[in-house]
């Protein structure tokens, strides 16, 4: 099933942060697209929810050193 979710990320303060999160999330199986908006500190992901969960995506954001805040 195709899922789409937008969430805020705390600690993402420069373009390299945004790129690091984008690369990290694009490396997850089942993630189809990642769009990071630095100005609004939001990330939008499209993913196959039968392959990967938001829980796993949040865990990967944290593993990259950032804090996923909440779904928006
Ligand atoms: Mo920029 Mo982000 O120097 O952790 S990469 S603040």
Please give a structural write-up.
The protein has 72 residues and is α+β, with helices and mostly antiparallel strands. It has a single domain (2-71), classed as 2-Layer Sandwich (Alpha-Beta Plaits), CATH 3.30.70.100. It is 31% helix and 39% strand. The chain contains two helices and four strands, in the order E-H-E-E-H-E. It has helices at residues 15-26, 54-63; strands spanning 2-10, 31-37, 42-48, 67-71. A hairpin with a 4-residue loop joins strand 2 (31-37) and strand 3. The chain is globular and about 30 Å long. 18% of the residues are buried. The model has no long low-confidence stretch (mean pLDDT 95). The structure holds dioxo(di-mu-sulfide)dimolybdenum (9UX). Residues 13-14, 16-17 line the site of dioxo(di-mu-sulfide)dimolybdenum. Involved in copper transport. This is Copper-exporting P-type ATPase.
**Major sheet strand order:** 2-3-1-4
- Structural Rg: 11 Å
- Major pleated sheet: 4 strands, antiparallel
Q: State the name of the first-level CATH class.
A: Alpha Beta
Q: Into which percent range does the helicity of residues fall?
A: 25-40%
CATH 2nd-level architecture: 2-Layer Sandwich
CATH topology: Alpha-Beta Plaits
Poorly predicted segments: none
Continuous helix count: 2
Termini, distance in Å?
Answer: 20 Å
- How many strand units? 4
What's a concise summary of this model?
The protein has 72 residues and is of the alpha+beta class. 31% of the residues lie in helices and 39% in strands. It is globular.
